């Protein structure tokens, strides 16, 4: 839990310029991912923002108190279309037409514990858990290794991170040297992607 907490704070610095989790941040960046929002910049262009919203809306339906209304209902079909297009093409979708008011809805929802829980659940499902499966597969145990695999999984995806690991020699006892090789490979990969990171 301590390693996860510190890894998330470090990733938060890179994603939102603060180690305090920024639940309500919502911006458009020049990266063709549409809106980027929340604690690790879930995006409308990849479907990760839609995954958060889906978890949130499910939790509202299961609530035992007064039913809350989701501020995202008018965006559901547009977000689903963007997610489907991203999955079909293998590329993020930068189109934000039909999403006017999305950031206002995100900020409104971020004031609720249900929405913050949804962000953490999707973070675990899409990034933390897959990253830790990868770390265990390669017998990585240093907190810096665990944190880097997590951060890379957010930035490059689980498959992208796995491909990166396969491009360098398998760790063989000297994990400190291995993480240095991994960071060099990651830097080269990002430069090849255009250096935007």
UniProtKB/TrEMBL annotation:
- Identify the Pfam families for this entry: Glyco_hydro_46
Superkingdom, taxonomy of origin: Eukaryota
List the Gene Ontology MF annotations in alphabetical order. Answer: chitosanase activity
Q: Which Gene3D superfamilies match?
A: Chitosanase, subunit A, domain 1, Chitosanase, subunit A, domain 2
Q: Which SUPFAM superfamilies match?
A: Lysozyme-like
Alphabetical list of InterPro entries matching this protein? Glyco_hydro_46, Glyco_hydro_46_N, Lysozyme-like_dom_sf
Q: Tell me the GO BP annotations in alphabetical order.
A: carbohydrate metabolic process
Task: Name any GO cellular component annotation.
Answer: extracellular region
- The name on file for this protein is Lysozyme-like protein
Q: What is the species of this protein?
A: Rhizoclosmatium globosum
Q: What are the top taxonomic ranks of the organism?
A: Eukaryota, Fungi, Fungi incertae sedis, Chytridiomycota, Chytridiomycota incertae sedis
């Amino acid at each position: 839990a301590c390693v996860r907490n510190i890894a998330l704070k470090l990733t938060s610095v890179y994603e939102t310029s603060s180690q305090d989790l920024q639940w309500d941040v919502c911006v458009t960046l020049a990266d063709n991912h549409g809106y980027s929002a929340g604690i690790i910049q879930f995006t409308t262009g990849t479907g990760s923002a839609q995954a958060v919203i889906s978890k949130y809306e499910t939790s509202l339906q299961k609530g035992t108190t007064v039913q809350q209304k989701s501020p995202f209902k008018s965006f559901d079909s547009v977000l689903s279309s963007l997610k489907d297009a991203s999955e079909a093409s293998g590329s993020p979708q930068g189109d934000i037409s039909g999403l006017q008011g999305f950031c206002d809805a995100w900020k409104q929802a971020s004031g609720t514990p249900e929405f913050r829980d949804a962000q953490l659940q999707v973070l675990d499902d899409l990034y933390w858990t897959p990253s830790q499966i990868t770390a265990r597969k390669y017998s990585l145990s240093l907190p810096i290794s665990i944190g880097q695999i997590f951060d890379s999984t957010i930035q490059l995806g689980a498959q992208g991170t796995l491909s990166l690991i396969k491009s360098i020699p398998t760790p063989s006892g000297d994990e400190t040297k291995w993480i240095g090789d991994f960071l060099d490979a990651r830097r080269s990969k990002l430069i090849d992607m255009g250096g935007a990171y």
